[in-house]
Write a structure and sequence with these properties.
Layout: H1 3-10, H2 14-21, H3 29-42, E1 60-65, H4 71-86, E2 90-95, H5 100-112, E3 117-121, H6 134-139, E4 145-148, E5 157-162, H7 164-177, E6 183-187, H8 192-209, E7 217-219, H9 224-236, E8 243-246, H10 249-261, E9 271-275, H11 280-283, E10 289-292, H12 295-310, E11 318-321, E12 324-326
Parallel strand pairs: 1-2, 1-3, 3-4, 4-5, 5-11, 6-7, 6-8, 8-9, 9-10
Antiparallel strand pairs: 10-12
Helix pairs in contact: 1-2, 1-3, 4-12, 7-8, 9-10
Length: about 325
C-alpha cells in the first residue's frame, strides 16, 4: 500500500495526500478528513517511524549528493541550502558515493527522519537499468522527490535540468564552422546528463561531416592528470585531433596541461572547451572557454518548484534551463 493508492481512493492528487501527511494548513478540513479516513481504511503509514496522521511538518528537506568534492555538485548543494533557509526549511545532507546500495540506504535513512521532501543533486542517481530506479519511485510515494540534472517521468518526481544536448551541439558546431573537424570528446560517465551531452556532440558532427569517428570519443576519470595522460597516449598512438570538448572543466584543464607538454599553441594548434564554468576555468592559463550551466539558477528553480509543490500548486514534471557558452582564451570564436 502506498501514497498512490491513497490518492486514487480519495480522488485527490498525490501532492494533496503529502500535504495532509505533513499537516499543511492550506488543505481544507473536508479534504483532510477524507484523506485521513482513506489512510486509516487502507492501513497506510508513510514510513518506518509511522509519522502519524496529520502530524505537523518537520520543515526539513533531505539532500543527497554523490560527491561533495565535485565543484558542480558542491555549488548546487550550497545554493539549495541557502534557498531552503530563505523559505524556512532546514536540511539533512547525505554524501552517498555512486554505489547503488549506498544510495538506496541513504534514501531510506532520510525518509526515516521524516523529511518533507528529497532533493537528488545530479543525474548520477539515475541508473541505466530502469528497475534500479525503483527506490526513487517508491520514495516519491511518500514525499516529493526533486531531481537536479536528470529526468525521471513518474508521479511526484520533479526534474530541473539544463539543455545539455544543445550546449554541446553548439560548442561542436562552432568549432566545425572554423574548419576544425577532428574534435576529441572527453566524458566521465553515461549518466542522463552525460548522455545528453554526448548526443549533442554527435548530432553536430553528423550534421556537418555525415559520420562520427568513435575513436574521438573517449572516457576519462575526472581529474587533471588522467586527462593529460590520456591525451598524451592518444596522440602518441597516432590519433589526430585539433580540438577538445570536455564534459567537465577539470578535464579541460587536463587538456591545457597536455598542450603545454606537447608545446602546442592554444587555440592556434588546439582549441579546448570545458563544461560547468567553474572557478577552474578562470584559474588556469590560458583561461578556459566553458559552458555555463547556471548551477545557481538550477538550484533556485528547484527549491522554488518544491515550495510550490508543498503548497499544493500544480507544477510541471520537467523544467529545462538554457546554457551559455562563456568564451575565453582557449578558443578563437
Amino acid at each position: 500500500m502506498n501514497i498512490y493508492d491513497v490518492s486514487e481512493r480519495a480522488r485527490v492528487s498525490i501532492a494533496t495526500v503529502s500535504r495532509v501527511i505533513n499537516g499543511n494548513p492550506n488543505v481544507s478540513e473536508k479534504t483532510k478528513q477524507k484523506v485521513l479516513a482513506v489512510m486509516e481504511e487502507l492501513g497506510y503509514t508513510p514510513n518506518v517511524f509511522a509519522r502519524g496522521l496529520g502530524l505537523n511538518s518537520m520543515n526539513t528537506i533531505g539532500i543527497m549528493c554523490a560527491d561533495s568534492s565535485d565543484p558542480f555538485l558542491a555549488n548546487a548543494v550550497y545554493f539549495i541550502e541557502r534557498e531552503l533557509r530563505k523559505n524556512g526549511y532546514d536540511s539533512f545532507l547525505c554524501c552517498t558515493g555512486y554505489a547503488l546500495k549506498n544510495k538506496q540506504n541513504y534514501l531510506s535513512l532520510l525518509l526515516s527522519k521524516r523529511v518533507d521532501a528529497i532533493i537528488l543533486v545530479g543525474s548520477g542517481f539515475l541508473e541505466f537499468n530502469k528497475k534500479d530506479n525503483a527506490y526513487i519511485i517508491k520514495a516519491a510515494g511518500e514525499v516529493p522527490v526533486m531531481l537536479i540534472n536528470g529526468y525521471l517521468n513518474n508521479p511526484n518526481i520533479y526534474c530541473t535540468l539544463c539543455d545539455d544536448y544543445q550546449a554541446t551541439f553548439t560548442a561542436a558546431a562552432l568549432l566545425l564552422e572554423q574548419g576544425i573537424q577532428n574534435i576529441l570528446y572527453l566524458y566521465t560517465s553515461k549518466s542522463y546528463s552525460g548522455t545528453q551531452k554526448m548526443n549533442g556532440y554527435k548530432a553536430a558532427v553528423m550534421e556537418k561531416l555525415q559520420s562520427v569517428n568513435e575513436d574521438l570519443i573517449q572516457c576519462c576519470p575526472g581529474n587533471i592528470e588522467a586527462a593529460r595522460d590520456l591525451l598524451l597516449r592518444l596522440s602518441e598512438g597516432g590519433l589526430k585531433f585539433k580540438a577538445v570538448i570536455a564534459v567537465e572543466d577539470i578535464l579541460g584543464v587536463g587538456a591545457i596541461k597536455y598542450a603545454k607538454v606537447k608545446k602546442l599553441a592554444i587555440p592556434k594548434d588546439l582549441s579546448i572547451i570545458g563544461y560547468n564554468n567553474s572557478l577552474l576555468a578562470q584559474c588556469c592559463e590560458p583561461e578556459l572557454t566553458s559552458v555555463d550551466n547556471h548551477v545557481e539558477t538550477l538550484s533556485i528553480s528547484t527549491v522554488s518548484t518544491l515550495m510550490r509543490v508543498l503548497d499544493c500548486q500544480k507544477v510541471p514534471n520537467k523544467t529545462t534551463i538554457s546554457n551559455d557558452l562563456n568564451i575565453r582564451n582557449t578558443t578563437n570564436f
